[in-house]
Amino acid sequence: MAPVKVVDELCPVSLPAALLGERWTLLLLRQAFLGTRRFEDFQSEMDISRSVLAERLGTLVEEGILRREAYKDVRTRYEYRLTEKGLDLYPVLMALRKWGNRWMAPDEGPSYDLHHRSCGGGVGVHVACDECGAELTARDVRVTPLR
Amino acid sequence: MAPVKVVDELCPVSLPAALLGERWTLLLLRQAFLGTRRFEDFQSEMDISRSVLAERLGTLVEEGILRREAYKDVRTRYEYRLTEKGLDLYPVLMALRKWGNRWMAPDEGPSYDLHHRSCGGGVGVHVACDECGAELTARDVRVTPLR
DNA sequence: CCCTTGGGTTCGGAATCCGAACCGTAGCTG
DNA sequence: CAGCTACGGTTCGGATTCCGAACCCAAGGG
Predict the structure, then answer these.
(1) Which CATH number fits domain A13-140: 3.90.550.10, 2.40.160.100, 1.10.10.10, 3.90.1200.10?
(2) Which helix (H) or strand (E) holds A115?
(3) Contact check, Cβ <8 Å, A85/B103
(4) Does the distance separating the beta carbons of B46 and A100 come in below 8 Å?
């Protein structure tokens, strides 16, 4: 694997990495996928300061990953919900989870489980060739610089 | 999707998220997967300060994601290489890349491309049911709290 | 000998993060 | 209607972390 020089702005990983690789953002998204929607709930379920939470929610809304929406409970409240762009991050979280289960699992095992709604099967993540369908590891992939 | 209260330490996403959701770590891993191995090369290819680079490389080594190894060039040098645990993060990076290509792609397109070495096909990432094989989105998955 | 290179470590100042306090709007209570 | 509470923030001061620049040391090379 020869080192590939990369123009950072043109690497499809670097922008998302800069966004998600900001403290709290991944945890916030996990929480969103678990169904948390309200400011207060994020704040009490994660141990994050209110100011930083407000800021992170703000940038996620700006990025179009969450949308802030008013709704009527007993009175007007707001919720932060995943947009389509946000929902599309699911594979990232699932890949993280799979890795976490394999390499950083707590002794007692996870505190929740995920299953396919309709058949009850577990959730798997796979990197596969679009052409031949073979499961791929880093070693099976060639990097071709374009510029 | 009812909100699920999660004991943070028992969520298989939270530990990896805390680790990778630290500034620079994801970018560093991307670089590692592209073949960068030496301190100086990380430093010149990414725009990171030497002190933080040293620290991040250190924690990744502590975590067993990279291993630091001496080797002989014209003289003794060191390289940071992905361990098996590190290589196993490939799906995370690929999921990030896929998302980046779809939602944050730069106008000119990516600066490099990935292909299956043996058949030339593209690299795909899939979340699928272990049982029935169906492709899954967040909506198809049920969260079951265990404790 | 002095110079260069790789791989760091060590500053001081700048940017972030945190907890705690505050604020405004709304409803509910009496 | 006066006062209280809940939500969804914003605004502080102090504690961390980050950064760039400078320094350090070992091993060659000229």
Answers:
(1) 1.10.10.10
(2) strand A112-116
(3) yes
(4) no
